[in-house]
Design the sequence.
């Protein structure tokens, strides 16, 4: 049974209870993050992009109780009922010495952080390239989390806005697609969103540290958690083209390498409309 609250920290909060703002906004000076909770926001990524351009420091986190116009990869949009998900964005300002070709690894880095936390809490989670976290359910793999990372050019240097949307207490009749799920559906118990968010922020900081200093360790962690590598896949490309083959690895630029009859082809997140099992 997945864990939904820490031992000794009290009972699990009521279904769709508000986030504990005091706990989130006063998490201590030893953390990278400074967190702000909004009652409602069209898009936390848009808020943090604006903050980045205004000079907000690395570690700025905006989380909303109700995101009304969330954005995903390829400008796909979505909305969830209030307090039914964890929707937040974090600002990173990578050092100038980090080469630009490594930035596409940031969505994968966030995926590693989410999957590690969910596994720690007892959920059978894995990362699907390039920006989803899936859970193994009784009816197959289903999406529980989506990630969107945006690079923002500012007068203070380039910044990365990491947006994460994790389904926590969505009911089955509220799911946007049949291949989605939520933590509550899978656990059968209410989810303490504050507790989970604190775990996510801590793990995201750890994963970001690996991205900065130990990319080989990050790549090894991603491969262990991947539900894509080693599978036969169908990559649907812009213009209606299709690439069939076996996903064999993620390269240093965050691209998925697909082996096929003609050799190997590396595709980036922007090159693929959909990636599905073959």
Sequence:
């Amino acid at each position: 049974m997945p864990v939904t609250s820490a031992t000794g920290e009290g009972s699990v909060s009521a279904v769709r209870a508000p986030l504990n703002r005091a706990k989130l906004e006063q998490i201590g000076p030893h953390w990278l993050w400074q967190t702000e909770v909004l009652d409602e926001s069209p898009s936390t990524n848009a808020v943090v992009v604006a903050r980045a351009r205004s000079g907000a420091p690395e570690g700025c986190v905006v989380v909303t109780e109700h995101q009304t116009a969330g954005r995903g990869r390829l400008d796909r949009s979505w909305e969830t009922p209030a307090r039914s998900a964890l929707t937040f964005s974090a600002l990173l300002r990578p050092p100038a010495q980090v080469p630009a070709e490594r930035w596409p690894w940031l969505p994968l880095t966030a995926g590693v952080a989410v999957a590690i936390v969910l596994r720690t809490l007892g959920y059978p989670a894995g990362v699907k390239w390039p920006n989803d976290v899936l859970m193994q359910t009784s009816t197959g793999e289903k999406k529980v989390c989506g990630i969107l990372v945006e690079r923002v050019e500012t007068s203070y240097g380039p910044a990365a806005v990491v947006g994460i949307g994790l389904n926590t207490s969505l009911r089955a009749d509220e799911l946007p697609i049949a291949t989605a799920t939520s933590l509550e559906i899978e656990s059968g118990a209410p989810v303490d969103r504050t507790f989970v968010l604190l775990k996510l922020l801590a793990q995201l900081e750890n994963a970001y540290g690996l991205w900065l200093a130990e990319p080989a360790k990050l790549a090894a962690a991603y491969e262990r958690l991947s539900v894509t590598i080693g599978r036969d896949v169908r990559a649907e490309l812009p213009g209606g083209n299709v690439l069939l083959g076996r996903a064999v690895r993620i390269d240093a630029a965050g691209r998925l390498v697909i082996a096929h009859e003609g050799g190997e082809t590396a595709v980036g997140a922007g090159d693929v409309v959909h990636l599905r099992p073959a």
In short: Residues 21-225 form a domain with the BirA Bifunctional Protein; domain 2 fold (CATH 3.30.930.10).
